[in-house]
Amino acid sequence: MQPDAAGKYPYTGSLDCAMKTLKAGGPFKFYSGFPVYCVRIAPHVMMTWIFLNQINKFEKTIGL
To answer: pLDDT tens digit string along 17-32?
Structure first.
């Protein structure tokens, strides 16, 4: 966060930031980047599940 030309910060704290964001954009403003995050993270989650499933199968075959 950077101060404006007069040296004042736009928010006095985290609650002030949240309230101003809520007033300016509504509750969905907090989720504006969520679809992009889901598209980015989905392949990682799927690969993790696949590897964990394969590890569990391998552990069962060797008796762990």
So the answer is: 999 999 999 999 999 9
Kindly report the pTM of this predicted structure: 0.55
CA-based R_g, the chain, Å:
22
Q: Are residues 12 and 38 in the same domain?
A: no
- 40, 61: one domain: yes
What's the confidence (pLDDT) of residue 4?
86
Burial 5-26 (b: 16+ CB within 10 A, else e): eeeeeeeeeeeeeeeeeeeeee
Tell me the residue range of the domain where 59 lies: 33-64
User: DSSP per residue over 39-58, as a string?
Assistant: HHHHHHHHHHHHHHHHHHHH
Q: Are 1 and 10 in contact (CB under 8 A)?
A: yes
